[in-house]
Amino acid sequence: MTNTNVAWENYSKQKPERRLTNAAGERTWFNWTQYADHGPGAEVLAITPGANVLALGCGKGGNIAHVAALGARAVGVDVSRAQLSAAEERWNGSGVALHHADALRFLTESSEQFDAIYSVFGAVWFTDPGDLLPVVHRRLRPGGVLAFSQRPAIEGCYGCQASYINRSEGEDPLVVKRWDYEPERWLAILHDHGFTTDTARVLAAPPGPRKVGTLVITAHRSG
Ligand SMILES: C[S@@+](CC[C@H](N)C(=O)[O-])C[C@H]1O[C@@H](n2cnc3c(N)ncnc32)[C@H](O)[C@@H]1O
Hints:
It is a single chain. By secondary structure, this protein is α/β, with parallel strands linked by helices. The chain has one domain: Vaccinia Virus protein VP39 (Rossmann fold). Helices cover 26% and strands 29% of the residues. Helix 4 (103-109) runs parallel beside helix 5 (129-139). The chain starts with a helix and ends with a strand. The mean pLDDT is 96. It binds S-adenosylmethionine. The site of S-adenosylmethionine has 18 residues, from strand 2.
């Protein structure tokens, strides 16, 4: 197992399960942000029944299960077996197809065309966009949606950054790489890779003690 895989297995142990229902009482829902009952929903993906939708770094599967509930063919890819086991257990019977793979490898080896590809604090954040965007472009049908969310960049800290995954006291944290840019820079990067960007903005945190917003980007494959 690579250090990155070990890191994500550890992350899985710390990540609490999604609630059984959201504030509206729904059993499945889409959440782009790190805050409960906050931000846009699945409408960002413009899903129609039968659409082919891929989640990169689907984690414990809460969002991709909602995609399946909307009538799409829902495919989730994650590099962590622990995350996928939790997804299989919770969303068994939901119709989601789960794959244990690195996102880059999955996209490179797949021959499928997707109507939408998305990532919520997932593999898009943790993969060099110079490597990932060409293969996302290839696997997205013309006009298809690429949408992703992540924490916004810290001012002055751009490009590849270290992300720490804490372990128990007495153990060093594990480190994974992530890629941070301001919305304007994302616009340029996406444009250079053949995408038209609809929105690239930092959504404010909901009222409360936490102030960090969420970067949400929606783009289309242009040609
Ligand atoms: C912060 S979690 C977010 C999980 C999920 N999207 C959610 O919102 O709960 C990041 C997820 O991306 C997965 N991941 C990270 N890098 C990946 C890669 N290169 N390929 C596939 N999955 C990856 C991790 O295993 C983890 O499940």
